[in-house]
Inverse folding.
């Protein structure tokens, strides 16, 4: 699993010009699921993201997590995170999981993440053409890949 985590002051997702998600201070998480990913990957990643200390304290140091600030989150599925650009100019998405694998893991990730942070989160619509709008705060953008647990 790959995640692009963006600290935001606001973010929203629209499908067919209908807003399906809206948050203020929190995280916008773009989530890519690979064929080889497992529930264990989702568990590790949700714990890592929930406890990632990327929000400022009163001294303007990144010492607080999403849990600490009781922030909100939007999770958006994004298979293009697994694009391979090694050959040619058209990305290949062969590593991205097909819906029958990706959807259950996406839903598991959401449920487990909600358990980690102790509140409901918002989501995009799996497989839909979405428009994501955000105000990246910092900017703070972090990429985490469960295949490279560091």
């Amino acid at each position: 699993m790959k995640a692009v985590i963006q600290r935001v002051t606001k973010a929203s997702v629209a499908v067919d010009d209908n807003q399906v998600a809206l948050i203020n201070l929190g995280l916008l998480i773009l989530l890519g699921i690979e064929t080889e990913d497992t529930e264990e990957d989702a568990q590790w990643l949700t714990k890592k993201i929930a406890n990632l200390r990327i929000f400022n304290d009163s001294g303007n140091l990144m010492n607080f997590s999403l849990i600490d600030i009781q922030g909100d989150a939007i999770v958006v599925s994004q298979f293009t995170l697994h694009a391979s650009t090694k050959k040619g100019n058209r990305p290949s998405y062969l590593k991205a999981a097909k819906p029958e694998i990706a959807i259950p893991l996406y839903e598991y990730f959401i449920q487990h993440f909600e358990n980690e942070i102790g509140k409901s989160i918002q989501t995009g619509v799996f497989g839909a053409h979405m428009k994501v709008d955000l105000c990246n705060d910092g900017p703070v953008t972090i990429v985490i890949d469960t295949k490279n647990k560091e």
